[in-house]
Amino acid sequence: MKLLSNSAIVTGGSQGIGLAIASRLMREGTSVLVFGRTESKVVEAAERLNREGEGRARAVPFAGDVCRQADVERAHAFATAQLGLPGILVNNAGSVSLHLLVDLPEEELDRLLGVNLKGPFLFMQTFARALIAEKRPGAIVNVSSLCQSVVTEGFGHYSASKAALAQLSRAAALELGRHSIRVNVVAPGAIHTPLAASFIDEPAMRRELLARTPLGRPHGLPDDVARVVAFLCAEESSWVTGESLDVDGGSHLRGMHSYWDTLNPPR
């Protein structure tokens, strides 16, 4: 598979799905700026990626806040100086929490919307402006969630943020297509990551996920998402933009059961 660019930015790249995406891009020969909040984690991730990459590409770390425009612009400038002008952007950084509407703190809503919506917006804006100025093509992949199209109790604020990201991505695809910049979305279902493990491995939830997934696994793995992201960043998908691909083993076909009821059964 031939990727569109030799330089990429992956946000939330220090663990889980983001780390798998960075690894997959590097396997295809694309160097990656690993963006995350915690310096020690992004440094550790970059060192691991460079060890495992065996010289096929480079990983460089950058610690910052996706919600701060100054951090986003500094990250893009650093990636350009270290790796060349990025032609691939993967907005993977995200946040999730479980709150019923009547119990949701205002500050939690602001935080979640910032990470899940404002962050991708700032990165897309900075990334696209640089490519347009240089008349270079690009590929953006925004990592959303199955919750962008289905809802369950306790996830209303999260679902709203991911639905907004999906619509923002469609609008970006429409606006940026004339500049040969493609924008697509991947919408994972349950993926076994360090952050999601306690939720997914809870016995009642594991049974529920297994019952609702046609492909016969209770969850996906980070590389299941990474392979789809790599395809959307490759020349093989050069005629694909404004799309959203569910990466969930088919669980969307049965809708979403109430996670809240599964985790909080009646007494």
From TrEMBL:
Which EC numbers does the record give? 1.1.1.47
What are the record keywords, sorted? Oxidoreductase
Gene3D superfamilies reported for this sequence: NAD(P)-binding Rossmann-like Domain
Keyword Oxidoreductase on this protein? yes
- Domain of life from the UniProt record: Bacteria
List, in alphabetical order, the Gene Ontology terms for molecular function in this entry: glucose 1-dehydrogenase [NAD(P)+] activity
Instruction: Keyword check for Oxidoreductase, yes or no.
Output: yes
Cross-referenced InterPro entries, in alphabetical order?
Answer: NAD(P)-bd_dom_sf (IPR036291), Sc_DH/Rdtase_CS (IPR020904), SDR_fam (IPR002347)
What is stated as this protein's family in its record?
A: Belongs to the short-chain dehydrogenases/reductases (SDR) family.
- UniProt protein name: Glucose 1-dehydrogenase
- Taxonomy-wise, where does this protein's organism fall, top ranks first? Bacteria, Pseudomonadati, Myxococcota, Myxococcia, Myxococcales
